[in-house]
């Protein structure tokens, strides 16, 4: 996790304080359930709630851990310092560390997912607003980086909206994947603890009980979770690359927002770098790199080995923090992206109408000219545009052979942009509904 | 794709014959829709169906492509050879190659997903059968590869069932991700073709129309698809590793089925290698390696670049063929896995009752012995087991200090396996329902 | 492996015929060494050479394998059909299959590496030629896709040359990594075969004996090999991305070669797609995806498990074939790349001299104008260029305040391109030597 | 970076203090070189050295950066606070930020590599010591996790030594890959700075000048660097997996060192978990996950884009810190690994001599018994071992048919372990030299 690419709310989820708070809640709810079952005295269960408003002292717990060499025991020892060691004596009874650790990890991932979902909703709002704003802003569509046919900037935003909307659905599924808890003991048989405890704790924490766990919650869930984040990050890269292309000096159809006072912007107005989207391209790689180790974590030995743990200590916080930051940064970029419609038109007309050559070719054929002759007619006019800088439409209108097949009106019609935008409304309805 | 790791039904999806058949269907349905719209003559649309039962001649199409340097044009030329070039003249009107290629690719992926879903259902049936069969077969649960507490072989199978059942759900979602088609023209604006054509073709092919495409169907869908396959393959690895561990010489709790006549098996009965599950471990890596390039494919330049194409030509067939083979092989392994319950018991008893030491320790404490004294009592008996090969229960029953705290009956009870299996039914209900 | 992305020489290395030929050579040389040691009769060793010119019958071997279920035994059986079963009876004595398989795999990888090395040398020759040709062809250097300072096209080629020259060195190291053989028996102890056999066979095949093998040659070697290929492929992507950028409609500083007769090129001269370099971008991903499974292959269980095998059956041929094709395709692209120096100049001058604003700013400061005043002077002239389409140098020459600090000559000098190219020779000497 | 998996010396390389110190050295040496060239006054160059012993104030620099929004400018401003702003006015002249950032990054990577090299040398020493110690400690060699033929524990250590020795060579090459610096200006043309400055600074910092840079040092170097680290980490996983297997309850041929006082060890002597090597398995994944983004970083747009930067801010420190920790932890594991030779023998004899069945089979054949009859003879005795728990050698010695072909002495000889260890010395010589 790199501080400069992080936001406080997500960072807080991964703080030791939050972790210990969640551990506490798991233990307290478990005691309550055990008291309900008559397994431990009610008074002891009640006593645990005395620490309800405590912020646990991380330094103190670290100090104890230095002696006990065990994080959960250190926490329990510290908890006893708050509620009294006699009162605390039934805390954690029949449980194993993993019951606490794995359930806590999933609470953290679930909360992280909630933030990522909210981030994505924010991004969607920005994309929709810009899509509607530029629904009719004409720009050239490009395949292979080469001019193809006209489209609109609104369609570009709508496309990103649709993609991010799919990602929203993926994030929701991913959230559900890891919204489970397990309090099932050393090998998952509930030998020392009743399944009712698991049910109670999970209900209180907003999780579903893991139908079958071993010592751990199965890691295919986490693999699917991180894979989903990898897909989202790749979509971020997709949008980032579009912005970077639009801001290229030769294209200049859009620019990341540049505050008036930003140094260098007016003395070197040509030198505004798309650094935010370049950064997003890199951040996407960072999120994506967690996918493979998360997949490698699935195959644990027998009822569990602990090889996944060091991986998750890293990718748990790092990946969610980075993706949160990236989604937020991208929302800002989209929100404030400066669009240059006039440059879009200028770019489209760079070759003075040649982008319409295919439409003219088709029209000639449909007017009965042989494919070969149509081709020659288009070619000889195209070459004058390409090599001598002439205007394509003008040349066609002045070519007697062309005029034999197509009227001036028909030629004009081939250069009508409305032809290309006539279904924009239909597409917008598909994407945004009515 | 490696022939030895492939099955004919899946391979057939990726044959040139199948591809051309799908191309044909797309074109024929599109003509029909265009005739419905009055855009092309009905007779021409009807004529296309003359080729309904044709198996297209791949060699002939290749021959034409060698001249035209364009696969879709080569196909169309060959199609005209079947239905007459005059009749064929409206085929593909207003469409671009990608309309055909991308829609076809998604048809292939959808069919591949259907096979993978059926494979997984077959695997689930095998896992369930073996789970029920060995519901009560006691074996030692292991964490870190070290004996922990007893569990049952049925729980192991049930765990894999639950994991594969989640994978089934993931495969269904993945199938839906890529079950879309697009016939939207050069940059996705429907400039030259009515959206109704797309709707008709998609309906006929069992796809949904892509709400907004450019020249291509957005690649986040494919990334999510291949990521799901990567998760499934990691679960295969998980099961494979379990079997390999069980078949280790020192463990020998299970063996891959070995036919009676298989060479070497009876002269060297100790030398039966888990080669199928080792192979599955490798195949899992092959499936998984497609995830990263699929994620890298998402960010295309503007309305499309063609960088994704060569990647998909490889991972489309290779990954689905390999995963199909792996699921099928794994089903066979599970179905015929030879289980050795007596070895499971022998392994559990390797240290003559020491696995129960934690339960005894707990019992002593609960009986009022101080934590420190309990520890010493357990330790002195454990050491006799560990170092002198004694039996733990016997030692405890002969230790007067222990007997002061626990009755012989209570000690016996700590070694009761029923304690560990009492919730197996509950877990089975969670996993398999009632 | 996709036929359209493959070349015959590399494909031949991976054919069954080649594989069996290498197996044969290993066995024949091993017999010779064993005869030298007096372990087997000389006559039997000599007899093996009778098959020296045989092309082994793959179909026949497959037929035998269908019965024996073992590829090496099938081959040996077929070999006996050629040289007589009595003569063949000492072939393979004391060896295990892996001795043959692993040594053969490394022979194949070594030969593949030789081709890749030759490919890279060919690419280097093309890059050097184009670098020298365009040493002085001015173009704008870009950071962040934004114009920065002038550079030359020759420097771009020279940069790629230097990068590919490092890759050449990496390929040579990678070749050495896997140029080892092992004939050391079931667990690598030489229990049944003398180390002298290994030494002899390796010497004959151009390999070094693996200092310590188990049943297999250690897989860190192969991991390093495929990692090197991944680096090379990333450099291919790097060059491909440059070409794709240069060919963008708005940039058009270069184009992939387009044969005069190529369809569409003259009727739609604006529509030439950089499909070769887009394809190379995808091929780079395919080569790169082998790196992770090759790394995952390193950790085998004890003296060997066979999980690596299925992975290598795929990535061995696929990765080397794809990289060979990609290097060759890239060489063709570079060789025939059409460069447009006039467009390079036009692009550089897109903002009429503004790229020099930083140099002017520096000159003003050095001439004693305060940083703040310098900034204002540059800014007011820059804005006239940016907003009103004026020429920067002209504006400066007409600004009395600027002329107070800098003479007209000094201003002219700031626009001198020689300033930027004065060290090109130095850099070329560093890259290409004298 | 996770504090619990890090060591101070490596962490220090990546501290802001170290970074600023290196920046300072680059600037100071550059000034010196410029003074040598007469480009800036000697007095100003000398003045920079006034800060030679300063530890720069990170908080103060952050404070300035909050205003200037530029890290290098913030540093230079703070430097001026130390040496006087008039004296500082020529610092950084003609340089760009990347000259400082990229050269500094490579200094850091080079220093990190030096630590990793030293770590590996330490590991090699431990491996060699243990190899010599257990040169003759017999254990069973295993393929597929199944007993194969005897080998020695020393050969296992020697094998890891040889593998790590190759990694040492790879690390040295990797170090050289990134031991370059660049001070070449905005697009690498040295327009504003003489190449002599670069040469001087690099010489002082122990780097080679990058033969041709753009604004940045080419990223194929870094890709090769991180790929090498990925290979090393996979070898760590390889060793870790071996230890984990040896420590399995059923195998118990070795254990990670467990201090006498460690809680639980004597009350539950069967429950010592190989947590260090499990942790190493996970750490290996963390190191390896940097390989793909490092490869993706190679293809930058034109003379540079900044997409690589966020990736490197993470993987630069995280990967080197994690690998350093892992190498050190592994050295400790090897150094103190508890070996159980008696368990090794017990495991080897688990099937009472059956591991020798192949040798017996061969001996019978060589003694003239037909292959079929030999097989039957072995089989009937093997089955008595396998099914009735008999001893293989005893059975053979009591089988009259066997004795007809082999004398009792010859049978005994087949069970001689010396047969398997006779070339251990040869192999040790190959690995360790004389």
Write up this protein.
- Chains A, B, C, D: This is Adenylosuccinate lyase.
- Chains A, B, C, D: GO terms for molecular function: (S)-2-(5-amino-1-(5-phospho-D-ribosyl)imidazole-4-carboxamido) succinate lyase (fumarate-forming) activity; N6-(1,2-dicarboxyethyl)AMP AMP-lyase (fumarate-forming) activity.
- Chains A, B, C, D: Its EC number is 4.3.2.2.
- Chains A, B, C, D: Pfam families: ADSL_C, Lyase_1.
- The structure is a homotetramer of 434-residue chains.
- With 434 residues, the first copy, chain A, is mostly helical.
- The first copy, chain A, has 20 helices and six strands.
- In chain A, the strands form three sheets. In chain A, strands 1-2 form a two-stranded antiparallel ribbon. In chain A, strands 3-4 form a two-stranded parallel sheet. In chain A, strands 5-6 form a two-stranded antiparallel sheet.
- In chain A, helix 4 (58-68) crosses helix 5 (71-83) and helix 14 (357-366) packs antiparallel against helix 15.
- The longest helix of chain A is centred in the first third of the chain and has 37 residues, at 97-133.
- Chains in contact: A-B, A-C, A-D, B-C, B-D, C-D.
- At the A-B interface, strand 1, strand 2, helix 7, helix 9 and helix 11 of A face strand 1, strand 2, helix 7, helix 9 and helix 11 of B.
